[in-house]
Amino acid sequence: MVRFLILTLVCTISFASSARETAALFMGKEAYESQRNLVSILFKDDRDFEDFEDGSIDLVKVLETLKDNGLLQLFFPETKSIEITFKANERPLLFLRVINESLQAMGYNYYLTKSISKDSSEILWKIGITTQHLVDPIIFAKQVQTRGAKVVKIEREDEASWVYRIDTHGAKPQVSQFEHDVDIDLNKPIKPYWIDVSNASVMILLAKPADRWFPQIVFFDEALQIIEDVRMEDFKSRIQLTIPEHALFAKVEDRYSLDNIKRGLTLYLKSR
After folding, report:
1. Which of 3, 33, 141, 241 sits at a 20 to 30 Å CA gap from 220?
2. Is the same domain home to 120 and 231?
3. What share of the chain is helix, strand, coil (3-state, %, to 5)?
4. What's the domain count of the chain?
5. pLDDT score, position 11
6. Inter-residue contact 255 to 214 (CB < 8 Å)
7. Inter-residue contact 49 to 58 (CB < 8 Å)
8. Last-in-domain residue among 133, 167, 201
């Protein structure tokens, strides 16, 4: 019976026909009943909440209005486990990176992957976070948008369980762009360097004299599929690589530890 009620709620929120109905489902029954009159006023005109692209209800606009008026529960009285499910139907590696970057940008660096699965039509990633603060769906949607993706559906199963469907069609990872045909000093890496190589034909990298660098450079296409993975057994002070034709991004690191390049690297990208 409980499972049936949860499924009914999810189906209802997915197909809510008005901004007011959508707001009620995001709030939960009890909260909505106590604020029914205010919700009716705030969401009286669906045209104020239409998505410009397809005329549907813009879920982020609804959530933003709820938040601005103190009607969206973001804090819990005590720490609890929340569960978030992310779904997409294409570009699985890029999808995972966009979600991870978005969460990290919000300060969520530690979470537990509860399950991950992929079939011919969909990838599903479910995580758990122990927190006293719900992952803000508005900030999360905007973080996703800054990476070229879009949250197209948000479902509230209960106060601690949310589902997001992501459109990754225009997504790209956040990578550093550097001027070409000049030497660039890269700072000490906290994590691997991600470099835009879309308009470059050759990459030259130099280690600092006191470092012992064991290079690992991976080139990716627009969907973050690996095109070439370069790993070197011996330490190098300088390497020169021809950038594969369809490579857009490169990840540069040390095979064993970033401490081996703790003084940074010097980068030179030759224009195509």
Report:
1. 141
2. no
3. 30, 35, 35
4. 2
5. 41
6. yes
7. yes
8. 167
